[in-house]
Amino acid sequence: MTFAPPRTAVLALGTFAVGTSGYVVAGLLPALTGELAVSETAAAQLVTAFAIAYAIGSPLFAAVTGRWERRSLLVAALVVTAIGNALAALAPGYVTLLLARVVTAIGAAVFTPAASAVAAELTSPERRGRAVALVFGGLTVATILGVPLGSVLSQSVGYQAVFALVAAFSLLGAFAVRLVLPAVPAPPPVRLAERFTVAKDPRVLAMLGATVLGCLAAFSVYTFISPVLSATAGVHGTTVSLLLFVYGAGGALGNVLGGRATDRWGARVPLLVVFGGITVVLAMLPLVATSIAGAAVVLFLWGLATWSINPPIQHRLIELSSQNAGLLLSLNASAIYLGVGLSGLVGGAVLSGGGPLLLPEIAAVLTAIAAAVVVAGWRSRVRQPAMAE
């Protein structure tokens, strides 16, 4: 099939909805702690609940829905995401909100990998990096608009209204996908056991490991960005929301550049450059982000580097086995949210034990390890039959 920007754009609209669903808690943290009367660490577990449910649900529901026509699957996933956000808006307390986050995660866990696989199918191989980048651009825009706007709105109308708006946008995304996307046949069925067999290839394991470490590093800081910026630059409230816009703007540019760099140089060089850049930026964050201007520069560069990661990693996975692209992307989606889920636990522990200034330093170490994992994975020559080129 030929590259069809409008079709890929509606997939990006859907990833914006599920991305905002997943990431918005970072912007709502002050409102959640105030309205629910819980600590920042407890509120961050709403991120963990979403992420762990996503990580577990992605391969399981990919197997269950493997024979569904792709457009119908994508629409159903967005509807479930809308229901989860609506339940979050109506939740009377912390426990019910936690359960609503799990429902939301199920919809997101189905949508994101399926959308990436459909985008790859609708795109010629030489433009696949940019197509995947466009779909994941929805997640980037979620950080540019969704999270900061959620933060601003929560200060005046409360977090419930923010979840209600995300629910409405998820339904809008479902309608757009149904209207614009053509019917896309289901890929050849893959049993759940086969999914884990495929993951035994050490090259795949390296990419999944790098994804976990990268997301753990990024979200250990991003989830607790309010206390981090309060400690470094002494900023709060609306100023933090504006700085999140800056981070998201860097992420938007990084996502585009990551896709173009991957199409030009392949995945290896962009990944090593990006992980190296993130390591330096995070290590310098406590030293540079001591004013609003300094924080803006650091957050822009951090967003630029962080959101350059997804295109080369997904391109590499598709390159390793194009016939198993859907299941590999679902495993990568699980890896993303496993890292996000662990970030709530690790970040909360570091925040409680060492304070907010230690968070970026721990994250820098994790990204350096991720770069080493990428190098080790590329040097591996072991191949499994299921991963034939």
Automatic annotation (TrEMBL):
InterPro entries in the record: MFS, MFS_dom, MFS_Efflux_Transporters, MFS_trans_sf
GO molecular function ontology, one term from the record: transmembrane transporter activity
Localization per record: Cell membrane
Gene Ontology CC entries for this record: plasma membrane
PANTHER family the UniProt entry points to: PURINE EFFLUX PUMP PBUE
Domain named Major facilitator superfamily (MFS) profile: residues: 7-379
Signal peptide span: none
Membrane disposition: Multi-pass membrane protein
Record keywords, A-Z: Cell membrane, Membrane, Transmembrane, Transmembrane helix
Segments crossing the lipid bilayer: 42-61, 73-92, 98-119, 131-153, 159-184, 204-225, 237-257, 269-289, 295-313, 325-351, 357-378
The keyword 4Fe-4S appears for this protein: no
Keyword rRNA-binding tagged: no
Name listed for the protein in its UniProt record: MFS transporter
